[in-house]
């Protein structure tokens, strides 16, 4: 497969995944405002958390004088200066898809093209806070439709495997970002601390659509320790860090037919080491060394794996936030 084709397929799924992640985070924050068990005013810092998860704080700070809800939403939804905005990621995904139209099913091209046109129409019209949730639902449904078409129509060859690597590496890294930002949030200052803490972790789980799956494993008790274990080490939840890294590694092994050549040795080693660490560590060991340190290290290792994928398969260089 030509490297430019592999590059387009890899970044096609990474960008669709980024758009969906943004939409999920925004939708949960909006729901949290309505259902917050602690009746205090939502602070600007609470909205700025979404900017921190996106990884483009400096760009936001240069563009806006304060982190109000509307500024954060504009930045994450439509800002052309934010490489991670939903509009920008889907625009890039559409161009990736256009470059490989002869490789992907026609239904997949029609799906991403329609997705882009709908977003473009929204970006050119004034929007209200009440309309944002509907827009987030649109993004999530279009992303799920995209993924469904891939799963239902794509042959399990090299094209599919590059798309698998892109999607799951993006998903793993974003899960670590979400958990890292929210894990150490100070909840001591709130009244009704237990209720607020429950709502806080409920929101974190909802950001990856994991609340129902979590409850089936841990029952109704939502504790920070259990949420961390669920995010990091639950091998059956499709948005956990260990599940996603397994999928990246499996796609790599399939691409290489189970062999490791000199050109792919560095990538193979990085994937093997990260996979083994996730298998070997217990949640107590992870939290004992410090959740922040572990999650920061995981994000860095995901970026390193991304760079090795780029180098191994001669993909175009793209800055990963």
UniProtKB/TrEMBL annotation:
Superkingdom assignment: Bacteria
Record-linked InterPro entries: ATP-dep_Glu-Cys_Ligase-2, DUF403
Pfam family, one: Alpha-E
Sequence ranges assigned to domain DUF403 in this UniProt record: 1-313
Protein name in the entry: DUF403 domain-containing protein
């Amino acid at each position: 497969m030509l490297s430019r084709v592999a590059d387009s397929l890899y970044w096609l799924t990474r960008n669709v995944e980024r758009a969906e992640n943004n939409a999920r985070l925004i939708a949960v924050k909006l729901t949290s405002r309505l259902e917050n068990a602690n009746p205090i005013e939502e602070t600007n810092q609470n909205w700025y958390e979404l900017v921190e998860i996106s990884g483009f704080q400096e760009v936001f700070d240069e563009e806006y004088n304060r982190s109000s809800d509307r500024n954060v939403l504009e930045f994450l939804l439509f800002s052309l200066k934010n490489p991670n905005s939903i509009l920008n990621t889907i625009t890039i995904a559409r161009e990736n898809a256009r470059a490989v139209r002869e490789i992907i099913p026609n239904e997949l091209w029609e799906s991403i093209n329609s997705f882009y046109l709908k977003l473009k129409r929204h970006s050119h019209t004034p929007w209200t806070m009440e309309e944002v949730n509907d827009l987030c639902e649109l993004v999530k449904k279009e992303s799920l439709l995209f993924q469904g078409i891939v799963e239902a129509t794509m042959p399990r060859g090299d094209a599919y495997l590059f798309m698998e690597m892109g999607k799951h590496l993006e998903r793993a890294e974003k899960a670590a970002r979400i958990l890292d930002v929210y894990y150490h949030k100070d909840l001591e200052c709130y009244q009704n601390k237990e209720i607020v803490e429950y709502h806080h972790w409920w929101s974190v789980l909802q950001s990856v659509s994991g609340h129902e799956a979590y409850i089936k494993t841990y029952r109704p008790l939502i504790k920070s320790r259990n949420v961390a274990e669920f995010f990091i080490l639950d091998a059956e939840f499709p948005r956990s860090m260990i599940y996603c890294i397994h999928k990246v590694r499996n796609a790599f092994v399939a691409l290489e037919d189970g062999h490791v050549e000199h050109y792919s040795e560095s990538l193979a080693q990085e994937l093997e080491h990260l996979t083994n660490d996730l298998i070997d560590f217990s949640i107590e060991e992870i939290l004992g060394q410090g959740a922040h340190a572990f999650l920061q290290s995981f994000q860095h290792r995901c970026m390193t794996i991304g760079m090795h994928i780029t180098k191994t398969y001669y993909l175009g260089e793209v800055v990963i936030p």
